[in-house]
Design brief:
The protein is α/β, with parallel strands linked by helices. The chain has one domain: Gcn5-related N-acetyltransferase (GNAT) (Aminopeptidase, 3-Layer(aba) Sandwich). The protein has 3 helices and 6 strands, in the order βααβββαββ. The chain starts with 6 loop residues before the first strand and ends in a 9-residue tail after the last strand.
């Protein structure tokens, strides 16, 4: 499958089981009913976006959750709170498609930046590409966070 044979759309509560399965792949086991409840709350919030990627057979093979946050130190920005691509569909441009869709959402909300904070057990973020203007991607890992000692 190439990135051209997938499509990105807003998630629905009907995607809960697939999102739960993908979350478990990343090491976050969760019940589909819990995802359904959380999606119900998130889908109605203007400052949140949950998108899925579907393959030609309409199977959900990835998801991303972005949110508008107002941070004291940097102001408003979009933060990617979760991003998963199925292990059988990685390295095919799907993650980039999800990032581009979140970037477009952020631009539509006039947010100047999209940021990603990575857990140490997550895949390396070196494959992220810069956003098109006016957005920029900022990645943060535990090692790049401020020293709290």
């Amino acid at each position: 499958m190439t990135s051209e044979s997938v499509s990105v759309r807003r998630a629905t509560v009907a995607d809960a089981a697939a999102i739960a399965s993908l979350s478990a792949e990343l090491g976050y086991p969760v019940e589909p009913a819990d995802i359904e409840t959380r999606l119900g709350a998130l889908l109605g919030a203007a400052d949140q976006v949950v998108l899925v990627v579907t393959a030609t057979d309409n199977a959900v093979v990835g998801w991303v959750h972005g949110a508008e946050h107002l941070l004291l130190e940097v102001g408003s920005r979009c933060e990617i709170l979760g991003l998963v691509v199925s292990s059988g569909h990685r390295r095919r441009g799907i993650g980039h498609r999800l990032l581009a869709a979140v970037e477009a959402w952020a631009v539509s909300r006039r947010l100047p930046e999209v940021s990603v904070r990575s857990n140490v057990r997550a895949a390396p973020l070196g494959c992220l590409r810069p956003c098109s203007q006016p957005c920029k991607v900022r990645t943060e890992t535990p090692s790049s966070a401020a020293n709290c000692d």
